[in-house]
Each structure stands twice: as C-alpha cells, then as structure tokens.
Amino acid sequence: MRALAWLRGWADGLLADRGAVAWMVVVAFIYGGATFVRSQASDWGPDHMMILANDITQGRVDLSSLTTINDIVTIDGRHYQAMSLLPTVPYLAFVPFEFLWPFSRWIVSAVIGILAAWLALPVARRYGPGGTATYWLAALGAFGTMLFTLAIEGDFYYLAHLESVLLVFVALIEWHDRRRPWVLGLLVGLAALARPTLLLMALPLGLLLLAEARDRVRTAAEFALPIAGAVLVTAAWDYVRFGSVLETGYGIAWITPPLEALRSQGLFSIVHVPTNLALFVGGGFGIRDAFPWLVPSSEGQSILLTTPALLVAVNAGFRGRLNQMLWGAAILTAIPVFLYYGGGGGATYGYRYAMDFIPFLFALVAIALKERFGNLEKTLIGLSVAFVCYGYVWLIYK
Fold it and tell me: Which helix (H) or strand (E) element contains residue 79?
C-alpha cells in the first residue's frame, strides 16, 4: 500500500510538471522515430542476446546458434558470448513472444535509451543552475552525447552502455536526494553488471559516504553488500561459462586479426594508452565526394569533436567534496578505458567507451554552469548536439 501511494503521488507530481511531460514526449518521439528509420536501413532478425535469453530459459548458457563469430568463446564445441550479464536480462521479457524476436533488439535499445535520456532532465535540475540552462543541459545529455547514437542502433554491445548510463543517472539523482547507502550500492553493482569498469566508481562514492556517515560500520555494510553481490553474480556467470571466476572471455574470444594483434600486447596494458588518448583527443573525419561528405574514422572520433561541451566540466573545478567525488569517479572509470586494447569501440561513431565516465562529466558541466552560462557554453552544447545528429545522418546514409 505504501508503494502504491508513493507511485500515485509520483504520477500526480509528474502530470503537474508540464515541462517534464513535454520533455518526455519529445525524447520518446525523437528516439523512437530515429530508431524506426535506422531499423529500416538494417538487417532484421534475433541477435545473440535474444538467442541467449531464450537459451537461458531452456537451462543452457551457451548459444544454440550464431549470428556472428566476433567475441565468441568456443569450449568443447559449445559457443559462448563474451559479454557481461545485464544486457541479456531485458531480452528475457521477449522469450514467450517469438514473433517479437526479430524486433527485440530495436525495442530494448530504444526503451533503455529513452529512459536514460529522460533522466538527463532531473539530473540537470539537481546539479545545474536552473532556469533555461536546465533544458540546455538536458538536450546535451540526451542529444549531445553518444547516448543518442548508441540507442538507435539496436546493438547489444551498445545496450551495455545504455544500461550503465541509465543506472549512473539514477545514482546521481539518489546521491543528490536521499543518499541511501544500500540504494547507491545496488546501483553501482547493477551498473557493474553492465559495464564492469563502473565498479571503480564505488571507491569515491564509498569514501564520501563514510566521510559523512555517523555510523560508518553500518554505512559501509549497506553500501558494500549489494556490490559484493554483483561481484559474486559476475563470478558465477563467468565460472558457469568459462570454468573460472577470473575469466571474462574477452581474453580468449575470437576477434579479427588486427584486434588480435593488439590484444596480444595485453587486454589491458599501458602500451595501448598513447594510441587511445590520441584517438580520444585527435580522432577525426575524412572526406568523400558523396553525401554526407564527412566520413568518420572507423576507429572513432575525438570527444572534442563529438561532445565539445564536456570541456565546460573543467570550470567546475576540484574544490568541494561533491566535485572531488565526481572527478574521482570519472578518472577512475576512464583508466581501464584507456588501458583497453579495443580503442574507442570498433566501427562506432564517437568514442563509445567514454560513455563509462561521461555521466560524471555531465554532472560536472551542470555544476560549472552555476558559475557561468553564456554564449560560449550554449555554442559548445549546440555543437555537441549538431555533431551527434551528424552521427545519426552518417549511420543512415553511410
């Protein structure tokens, strides 16, 4: 009854918030329409996550059939997808409805993407200066980051990023509002089940929670237990598939020869850092003589080109516990991204793996706008939206 009363109160409050309702309608319309158009320019059929979800309900964790061979681990004639667990979970809802299997990847990605984009507004309201800046910030979060281009692709690899952004946005809202340790721990754990790198954000969040806690033992236990549970789930998932709690599958999966050469230098290695940083800062575009003329590099693009508004985060500074926590989370989650052999995420518009730490930078941009929100900031946000929208055009017309 208490939950029902809360839900009724939340719904009444939302309906009274015309700005939020309008935002939700706009986001759903644009994301849904863009996904539909993108789906028409692509092949249809169940992907590995839909196949795996059905196989799980049949009591098996290997794939009964393959749609690609990339990132597939073959052990004793059985094929396993080297992937974290959470991207499979939404597909389980489609298992009883076989006629929806060919559409499931588009539906799942669009829905998770829309939910994450909706949350850009409440995050902007909590961390930003208010007023018109709120909707500039919301537009940046929903349409000026790779969240938009990843959501419309119907790709289970990208789904992991969509889920992690959604969960980190919820965590940022929870941090601002009630800051319950067990809720934050649960959100960190779930985010790590999508993108294991996000387990590292537990350190700055946990340290600040303890610094502010009256009962540090209880706070630590409430925060740590859900995270430990997520680690155990991941360990069990890896053990069932690969026979070891320390084997994720990415180090032994089949990949293309160029990537194999990079991986042979180390799955995570300082050797990859210079190339990854160069791509992150300087990756760009080529030119062709046909529409849409600009050709994004197949390796990825500089974050300064696709989302230049993130530069505003620097103006937030490092003073204050909140800023230090956000910078700590961004930096810690960025470390494995730049150590990884896979660059920005193969054949992806933008630097896909940066989505692990972009939500923290987004909150810092919102904080920075409290000090200054002028033409420069508006221009950078506008450019970010323009470049991301160009990414959509490229995905359709390439």
Answer: strand 78-81
